[in-house]
Target: Lytic transglycosylase domain-containing protein
Amino acid sequence: MPTAASLLAVGFLVTVAPVLPSSLSPIPSAWAETQVASTRASSTLSANDLKTYQTAFRSLDAGRWQQALSRAATATEKLPAKAIQWLHLQSSDSNAGFEEIVRFIRDNPSWPRLDRLKLRAEQQMSDALPDETILIWFRSNPPQTGAGFLLYARALERAGMSDALQRQAVHAWRETDMTSGEEYEFRRKYRTLVPMSDEVYRLDRLIWEGKYTAADRQARRVPDAYRRLGEARIRLARQSGGVDAAIAAVPPDLENDPGLVFERMRWRRRKGFDDGAIELLAWPEMQISHPDKWWDERSILARNLLQSGDAKRAYAIAADHRVPDGAGFAEAEWFAGWVALRFLKDPEKAFPHFRDMYNGVGYPVSRSRAAYWAGRAAEAAGQQQIALQWYTVAARHNTSFYGQVAAMKLPNASLLPPIQDPQITLAERQAFDRSEMTMLIRMLAEIGAEDTVRTFVRHLADTYTSPAHLALTAELASAIGRLDLAVHTSRQAIKTDVVTLAGYPVLPFRDSKLGDLSIVHGLIRQESGFDIGAVSHAGARGLMQLMPATARTVSGWEKIHYRKNDLTANMDYNVRLGSAYLKDLLVKFDGMLPMAFAGYNAGPNRVTQWVQRFGDPRKMDFEGVIDWMEQIPFSETRNYVQRVLENVTVYRQRELQKPVPVTLTAEAG
Model:
């Protein structure tokens, strides 16, 4: 294992934890047509078995489970039949019993969706099972539903295990969501086992989790003082009328309840009363409970202050966060450091925030961000050698935006290691190819069971055992034509500093309206992950995630017929319209990529508003543009712009077969 080297200079503690190089070597121009031989999608089923399974999966899709199972049973190759059984056991329409489901779980511990199978097993249990069976199952698999708990409780009761029954009853009532019917049955039999403090806890939890209908029911079961407290919190959260009266009805000894203070603070912020909301942030002891939720509000208020020109208060609010770890901690430390460095011009105050962020995060995107900004703070303080140390650390993550930007700060950036797949031994490749999961994925792809293929490849990527395993999974996904799953695998891999080249697919576009295909590929990778049939919750469709209304408008520009179905069926049609829209944004914003990408994600009118609020990045230097990007109010759009830019840089490096700097502008041709 690498050791950490610590440097101490003028108060700057730098903890440099060497990271295995995650790099990416340029690919030959024919890469899109070249795949590793052992992972080619070859014929794995006989003609008869292929026909049998295609028929079986059609029956399955139509909900005719018995037909699907019977048809699959006639095939010579049994592995896809096992997948059909696995699907059947998960279905709410399945007539499979508890024993059959448990047997499958026991025999296939490495298969996907075991939690779902365990839930189905619980749903298929009844009092007809022997008490010993019920008790053994729930000792290893705690109840997931109210009905499951009631079954467990009756078995404990019959076994005379009163202490265990009370423990389980308290835990279930505190932590398990139940239907109104399950709640009624629980309370009818076991409410005397639950102390009132746990009744109050349940109400508090439900409100924090935003489950207000269940909280309304629970509020009727607690003492009057807590009922009033709960009703006030729910009214505030729902922004219902009568909040002042509801707050006034809360007894004085509960006025400082953290949940109530939080809802009052959030209500004020939502109504535009920021100063009033900030007053309630002055009680730090309130924020021990649910610190991430407090940070979400604190972040909005701090950004509002920064926008209004009050950087000092923005810093104070951010720096006083109480988030101990996780994504909220990383964002809070970064924001406080950034404000101190760029707006308060105080690198000594900024540096510890970036250092602490670096030491508290694990993913390359976050580590490179922290290291880059630690370098910026050290550089601003005149500590050039310390800055170079941090830039070097950041630059190791050379598929991330801040790693790429950090590399531009290094005098020997051209000597950085190339991006390349991890080394794969022949033994690793053979073991992977012969594994049950790999063989099944190939068979399912041949059958055309696309949704099932997705589940198994994602599971393979999410349960990796080595860098080679991840690279082979991405190769497999690419070989069966599932570029979207190669990208998914690549995203999982990069979390552990493993780069998979198959996660940056190249498509043979014919009708792109942009000549720089690195930009088109980079945007597609972020928009749809190369899933041609992707449809978002908002209705955006296809590779470039075009909204139908936008696609209709652009089809008019291009003088071609609008065909909604082709947005998710015809790669060239989608790319022609999407690239034309992106080209229009580039023209509108004078080739400034961050503005064009932000406009593609959030709409061009918002970008115009942000120019008015934060300045015009077209008139800024490189570092000023980075600040502009970080001031975008929507976290989704801030992240989106950086992810697309880093993708574009990777594609450009591969196209030119040499290291390239991050560029923020492009020709619109």
